[in-house]
Here is the input.
Amino acid sequence: MWDKVKQAKEAHQAKLRALPNVVGLGIGYKEAGGLKTQTPAVIVFVKNKLPKESLTAEALVPAMLITADAQGVATDVLEVHDLTKLTANQQKQRPVVGGVSISPGNFLLAGTGGLVVERGGVPMLLSNNHVLRLSFLANPGERPQKGTYVRQPAFLDDGEDNIGSLEDWVEMLFPGPNTVDAAIAKLTVPWSPAVLGLGPPSGIDDPQIGQGFQKSGRTTGVTADSVAALEADLQINYSSDPAQPIIAEFTGLVVSQGPVMQAGDSGSVWVAGGKVVALGFAGSDIVSVAIPIKTVFQALSLNLPTSPAN
Here is the structure.
C-alpha cells in the first residue's frame, strides 16, 4: 500500500515542490473534516493553507496523483507555518529547571513544569493537574496515578528520561467549584531553582492589576504581558472536542491583557519583579488565565527551595 504512495511522491516531487507555498512532502493518511481517514495519501506541507479561490489553477495541489502504472493516489494539504528548531524549553535540561517540557508516563502530550518547589524539604516540580494528573478524564483508572513517572522532555517532544514521579495534586471538580489546577512531581534528578530564561525567583507575591510579568513555557519560551483582571470567575473547557465540552468553573483567577501562553505552556509560572505571582493554566487566542501562586502554595503546602541547587 505505502509503496504505491511513495512512488507517487517521488514521481511528482519536482512538480509539487515547485508550487508556491509548498515547503515539503510526506506520506500519511488523508484528513477529511478534521478527522483522519484510512485513505493513504501524499501529504503536501504548505506554509499557509489558502482558499482555493485565491489560487490559480496552476498553483493548486492536484487532488490525485497518477503513478507509472496509471493508478491514482490521493493528496492532502497540511499547513505547518514556519518550521523552526525546538525552543530550549522543549529540550532536555539538567539540572531540571522551571519552564521546561514535561509529561506523565506514556501519555502522548506535553505541558510545562513551571517551577521547582519544596514540600517537607523534598524537591518537587510544580505544574497543572491537567498536565500531570489529567483529572478531566472521566474514568479515574485512565488517569496517571501517584508514582507515575514523569518525563523531561515530554513524550510529545521525544523525551525518554525519567526525572521523578507524580506525588500529589489538587482534585478538580466538574463542573466545580474550583480554585486550583495544580499538581507536583517528586524530583529524583539534579535540579535548580531557576526558571529557564528568567533566573531563580526571589520569592512569591500577590499579582496586581496592571502589573507587567514574564513567563517561560514549553511552547512559546519567554514572553511578556501585563495583568488585566483579578478575582475572575470563569468557566474553563477541558475538552478538545467542541461538540463535547468538559466545563470546570473556577473562582479567584488572574487574566492577562493578551495571549501570553499557547497550548503546551500550561504549568508555566508568571514572574513579576523577580517574584512568582501566578501559575498559568488556560487561555484563548485573546487572553491567558492563571491562578494566584499563593493559592497554589497553600493548597499543596509548598515553599520555594531553601537551597540554591542540587
DSSP finds three helices and 20 strands in the chain. Helices lie at 2-17, 129-132, 293-300.
